Amino acid sequence: QSDWERSRAQREREERLLVTAWYNMGLALQQQEGEAPPRGPPGAALSFLAQQRLATVARRARTPHGRAPSS
C-alpha cells in the first residue's frame, strides 16, 4: 500500500504542475495579446515553441517585481 500511496502522491504533484503550467501559459498568451505582434518575417506564422521562446525572452527582459535585473 505504501507504493500505491507514493504513486498517487506523485500523480497528484504532476497534475498540479500541469495545471499550473497551463494557467501560466494562458496568462502569458493574454499578456502577449496586449503587446506588439511577435517578431519574425512578415506574414510568417510562428510555431508554438517559437511563440513560447519569445514569451520567455520578453518575460526575462522585464524587471522582476521592482528588483534590479540580475546580470
UniProtKB/TrEMBL annotation:
GO terms for biological process: cytoplasmic microtubule organization. It comes from the Eukaryota. Residues 2-61 form the Hook C-terminal domain. GO terms for molecular function: microtubule binding. InterPro entries: Hook_C (IPR008636). It holds the Pfam family HOOK. This is HOOK2 protein. It comes from Atrichornis clamosus. The gene is Hook2_1.
